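Schema walk-through. Below, the input block comes first and the output block second. Nothing else is stored per chain. Lengths vary across the set, and this one has 179 residues.
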Amino acid sequence: MLSRVWFGAYIVILFIQNRRMLYLPIMSCRFEDATERLHTFLEKHQITLISNATVGFGNSVEKYTEHKYPVLVSSENLREAALQVADRFKEAESKYLLPRIEQRSAVDEYLTKRPHHWPTGDLFNCCVTILSYGLLINDQAFVHKGIERTFEILNKPGYSQRNRDFFEAILKATELEFV
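--- output ---
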């Protein structure tokens, strides 16, 4: 099932000496239908700990391109720099975004990806991606897999407990809704 997907591309601009700019391209994807289903679920169970939860992912373009350095821009190379950034977006789009357009691909990745050294934001994305996919396709097994995977990682020794209250509220809500 292919749900509505929103793609975003933006550039972080850092100004450095002599009025030169450093462009760091970023790309992102948001699963619209899954985000709506997640918000409905959170509202239904009065979970307000995180009000703007979105289902999606994003990353630096450089991570998925052959050239792994920022583009330095000045008035002399503006056109060349713009073309260079556009080429990097195209390359990263095929390597990073396109394989994840179907939410199921992102779900499978979160279920199988080694959780060693995951940032806390990645755990949050893991939880809401799997949970919302289960809600979207009305599959209790995926809802439970999302919660189990979240606590499997959250309960690792030394792992950050950021958002634990949110995860526990979701656990209680899923236990009520999916007996």
